[in-house]
Every structure is written in structure tokens, then in C-alpha cells.
Amino acid sequence: MTEVTPAVSESREGPVAVLTLQSGPVNALSAALREGIRAAVERAEADQAVKAIVLIGGGRMFSAGADITEFGKPPRGIVLPDLLNRIEGARKPVIAAIHGNALGGGLETALACHYRVAVPSAKLGLPEVKLGLLPGAGGTQRLPRIVGPRKALEVIVGGAPIGAKQAAAMGLVDEIAPEDSLRAHAVAFAERVVAEGRPLTRIRDREDRLAEGRDDPGLFDAFRRENARRLRGFEAPEACIACVQAACTLPFDQGLAFEREQFLKLVSGSQSAAQRYVFFAERQTARIPDVPEDTPTRPIAKVGVIGAGTMGGGISMNFLNAGIPVTIVETKREALDRGLGIIRSNYETTARKGRLRPEDVETRMGLLTDTLELEALKGCDLIIEAVFEDMGIKKDIFSRLDRIAKPGAILASNTSYLDIDEIASVTSRPGDVIGMHFFSPANVMRLLEVVRGARTERDVIATAMQIGRTIGKIPVLVGVCHGFVGNRMLAERQREANRLILEGVKPWDVDRVIYEFGLPMGPFAMSDLAGLDIGWSRETNKSESVRDLLCERDRRGQKTGAGFYDYDAKRNAMPSAVTEEIIATVAERQGVRRKAASDQEILERCLYPMVNEGAKILDEGKAIRASDIDIVWINGYGWPVYRGGPMYWADSIGLPKVLERLRAYEAEYGDAFKPSPLLERLAAEGKGFKDL
Ligand code: 3H9
């Protein structure tokens, strides 16, 4: 007989039954845990000697909520809403004792209790919206009854957790317990409730805080308007808002029923499936088959950054934000001063917006040393080169670094395209060389492509991945190839977008289709933002492409007030007749046949080659798994998370269909659309990238 560890352990402290949740690393509310709680609560209720019940989490936290792996499977055991109604209806006071996290169903469980105590470091939140869901166990009905609908909207639609002290200020937590004695404090609290004969406060019975929403029903539409841009394309936020609104208009039980109906709709929909996939995919990126989790890492106490331009400055800020000192090197004083000025003004802007304390601006700037001497990097544990994309310059820097850097220092390049192995070849320590490709703006974008060279040591890889996480990035390991994963796939889209406009599709129509699909902007708006003259110069100009001709006319993108689009003083983009004329000229010179394309064709021709390239990347082993590619696109390029990334999206369409369209375009346009052997094979076997 196998022994089953009970999901809930029961103990007694005088008249108080203490029920400790013990289920995996995060106390996810699986069927076993739900049943365990129900049984333990019922036993405690039936026991005459028990006067109050404390629910507390064993291990790291109270609970991270519903077990996400159960969604999409047939329901087992008591459902969470019923369990929580059962707890709320208990005839003895139930007290939630919270440490670590109380998230989603975890917080909903606490809300069903009659009282809540928490340690100061605890985090409380309803992050369901990030999984394409809504709090489906009473959260949308109970939270507004305790904090008011306005705050409830922020917490539920925002999805960000709040600290225990803030939660106490909102009335969500009744008492703050000392950090190291939660259990004893919660038991004492329970004893006091019993001794004083305090009532069983059931949130369901509270109406007072709902007045805010009843007196001002316009607040919901105002919230919708204020957040429209951020929430574009997502289904869950609107459902969350509708539920909070329902809390103000319907009796509690009807509100619960409405919430349940909305939850079931979302949980069976495609957006939540994609967002749940992304949740696990993000965690997968840390798993590298030949670099196990216990691989030793090198300590990183001091970082050097070469180049104080936009990238170098942004990269430095990440480390300063994490309290790691940075030495930043430039070749010219003016460039260095300009770079430092931008870093400072970025911090000051953040402080003005109230997102950074003014004294922290100085603390962070105080961690930054500026210098014109590369030798100053000799004490650094990690040196990141972020200079112009030129192999000659990079090789020169790395051969000098080889002489300067201390033994064991990690030498990283922020190159977006160049061959890390060639860069490493000029050093006597190629095992210490790695790519760390940040995305612009480097202090904001969460993606970090960690580029593994042929000879990069495993502990160097482990260290780069770990330091990436320390500075708040999502590091994804990729292999050496032109443009790595992200830019290599982007190049496919860019090429096809350019072909489309030569055929007569307007750039703004290509951009519109991509934007409506859910990306933040289309290829031409993106080019204008980045600057059309990256890698272009008047001297080497061949006047062959649309870009060449735009640059010749000084239409170099947003910064010059014109590029593919015309821009007004507020940088609003407007279609441009000049661009249309330039495109027509180039198309005629190149003899491109003009033809119309439907929105569907625009979408397929821009995105299917990316998927195809992703398949080649997998086939060549340049990405470990398809979901890593999805994480690159979501976090580096703003691929809509509710579509799960390009590879997941292709799976959801069905690879046979993608293959069929690629073949059709191949017949018309040639090799650019030639399906990759991997895609052919998976389609033939009726499989998807998810099955690799
Ligand atoms: C919900 O509650 C719906 C209800 O309203 C309605 C129901 C009717 N389930 O992240 P970590 C796994 S929806 C299953 O590395 P950390 C995770 O995959 C839920 N598994 O730890 C990982 O597994 P592995 C709303 C989960 O310390 C391991 O646990 N709640 C769940 O960096 C450790 O996780 C949320 O959205 C889960 N709920 O971060 C919260 N949570 O070791 C989701 C985690 O195999 N969770 N796992 O890779 C989190 O945000 C973070 O896990 C947390 C801890 C901040 C709690």
C-alpha cells in the first residue's frame, strides 16, 4: 500500500484547530488539497472542543491559488467556489494566517474566512487576469464588498499583488503579525475572537462598500476608457469588470452565479489556454538539458559595460536597479557625459512619476563609475560590450579585454546579429565568452537572449541565465546564427512586408493588419521608430530600396519627422503621398507586378515565414524548444500573449494548413516560402511543435 501524505495536517492549540496546507511548492488548490481542507474543516466543526479554526500554509506560502494544471481537464472533487461557501458558512470562526503569497484562489480562500492575519512580507493578489481568467471562486464578489469596487477593479484587472501592509490599510487584512511568529499570533488572535465572542464576519453580508459603485455607475465605463489601450485584444479584463459591476447590482448569490458563468467561458476559451501555456513556457526556459540546475555559477559583484549609447545605458540601468555596481566605458568624454545624462534623466522621470524615491536616484547613480579607460574594467566579474555592430571593432575590444579582464571574468557581447564564435576566437578564453542580447529599451524590455558559443563553458551559461533573472529579465538560451532567434525571424517578416508594398499594398495597411492581430505596431511603424538609417550611409547608398530613397530625402523615421509615415509635432503618424510615390518608383524599376492582397494574405505572408524560420531554428538546434521561441517573441517583440507566441499560434491553426499556404506562396514567390523539413514532417505526422 502506498502511503498518501495528507494535503492538510491538523493539530490543536488549546481550543484552536490549526489546519496546515501542505501541497507541493506553492499549495496550489488541487482536488486533493480542496478535499483535504473540506474534510479537515468538517472534522474541526464537529469537534466540540474546537472553538476556532486557523488555516495556514506550510512551506513557502499560504497558497498560489487554483491548480492551473487542472484547467481544461474534467473536474474532480469539490469545486473551489463550493468549498469556499462551505468555509464562509462554518459555524466557528475561521482565520486565515498568511505568509508568502495568497494569490488567486489562495486569496479567495482567505476572503471566505472570517478574519485574516498576515506577516508584513506577505503578498496578496488576484492575478487570474494574467492567465486569461477572472477570480472564479467569489473573488470578484467578495473583494469589492471589502475594499470597494474602484480598488477591486485595480486589483482584479491589474492583477498585480499588493503587500500585506497596504492590504491592511484597505481592510483586506485584519491584523499584521510579526514576521517570525505567524502561527502563534494567529492562534492568539483566534483565542481572542472566541473569548470576546466576536461575530462571524462574512464578507458576503457586507453591502456598505458597494455604495461607491451604486452611486456612481459611470465609474466602470471610465475605468474601461482609461485602460482601453493596455487591455486591447484581451477578453478577460472585460469579464472581470463586468463581474465587479455585477457585484454592485446583483444579490451575492446571483453575483456568484454570474461570475461562475463568466469564468467557465474564459477557462474554456483560446486566450486563457494560450496564457496558461505561456505561464509554464516562461518557467521552462530555465531548463537547459546539459546545464543542470545545480551547475555552479560565478559570483557577479561588479559589472563593466562598454558603450554609453542607448543600449549600453539601458543595460547599465538594469544592474544599478538591482544594486550591482557598474563601470561604464566610452571612448569620448562627450559621449560618456551624454550617456550618463540620459541615465540620470530616466531615473528622474521615474521619480517624478512617483515610481522611484528621489533618494534612490542618487543611490543608483552612486553605483555607477564612468571612465574613458578600458583598463578600469580589470576588476569586473562580467563585462558586456555594447558598441556599434561591426565585427572589426568588436574583435579589437575583445582582444584588449582578453589582456585586461581578470581570470574567470565573463566576457559578453550585446551583438544582435554577429557570430559570437568569431568574436571569442580573438581571445585566449573562448569558454568565458557569451552573447547577452538585450532588447531596446534595455531597461524596460524583459527578454534577454543568452547566446551560447561553440566553446562557452557551462558555468558561464548558468551564470548569464541567473544574472539575467536577478536583473528581472526572462533569459532564453539560443545558439549562434545570424540574428539569433528573434531578429532572424523578424527578418522574414520584414522581407515579406517590403515585397507586399512593392506589389501595391500600402505600408499602413500592412501595419494595420499586424496591429489588429495584436502586436504593438507593424513593421513600417517599427522601422520609423527605430530609425531607417540604421546601417545606411549616404556614401554607400545604392538608391535601390524604398528605404534608401526615403533616407536620401532625409525621411529617416520619427526622429526626422518623416519616414514611411509623415509625423506631426506630437508624433502622430499619417499616411504619406511621398512614400507612395517612392514605392511606385522602386516597384517600376524592379518590374514588380502590382496586385492586391486581402488582410488574410497580408497576415499569412508576414507571419507564416516567421513560423517556418522558427521551425528551421529548432531543426538546427538554435533554440532548445518551440516554447522558448514563443517566449522570445512575447517578451522581445510584443507578440500578443493571448495568442501564445508564433509557434503555439501555428499549432493552434494546425500545421497542415500552415504548410498548405506556405506551398501556395512558394509556387508564386519561390524559395522564401519553401517549407522547412521539420514543418513538413510534423504536419505529415499530424503533430504540432508542442509535441517535439
Ligand atoms: C485561480 O486561482 C483561479 C481561481 O480564481 C478560480 C478557480 C475556480 N498551479 O513560479 P514558481 C508551479 S488561477 C499549478 O517557479 P516562484 C510552477 O509551475 C491561479 N502550479 O515559484 C512551478 O512548477 P515547476 C491564480 C503552479 O516562487 C512551481 O509551482 N494564481 C501554480 O518563483 C514553483 O513556481 C496565479 O496565477 C499554480 N497556481 O513564484 C499564481 N503556481 O517547479 C501563479 C506555481 O514544475 N503562480 N506553480 O516549474 C505564481 O505567480 C508563482 O508561482 C508564485 C511563486 C509567485 C506563486
From TrEMBL:
Protein's name in the database: 3-hydroxyacyl-CoA dehydrogenase NAD-binding
Domain 3-hydroxyacyl-CoA dehydrogenase C-terminal: 483-567, 602-687
GO biological process, one term: fatty acid beta-oxidation
Metabolic or biological pathway, per its Swiss-Prot or TrEMBL entry: Lipid metabolism; fatty acid beta-oxidation
Annotated Gene3D superfamilies: 1.10.1040.50, 2-enoyl-CoA Hydratase, Chain A, domain 1, NAD(P)-binding Rossmann-like Domain
Recorded GO MF terms: (3S)-3-hydroxyacyl-CoA dehydrogenase (NAD+) activity; enoyl-CoA hydratase activity; isomerase activity; NAD+ binding
Main location: other
Keywords: Fatty acid metabolism, Isomerase, Lipid degradation, Lipid metabolism, Lyase, Multifunctional enzyme, NAD, Oxidoreductase, Peroxisome
Cellular location(s): Peroxisome
Family: In the N-terminal section; belongs to the enoyl-CoA hydratase/isomerase family.
Top-rank taxon: Bacteria
Domain 3-hydroxyacyl-CoA dehydrogenase NAD binding residue range list: 302-479
The keyword Cell membrane appears for this protein: no
Transmembrane segments: none
SUPFAM superfamilies tied to this protein: 6-phosphogluconate dehydrogenase C-terminal domain-like, ClpP/crotonase, NAD(P)-binding Rossmann-fold domains
Reactions mediated catalytically: a (3S)-3-hydroxyacyl-CoA + NAD(+) = a 3-oxoacyl-CoA + NADH + H(+)
Subunit field text: Monomer.
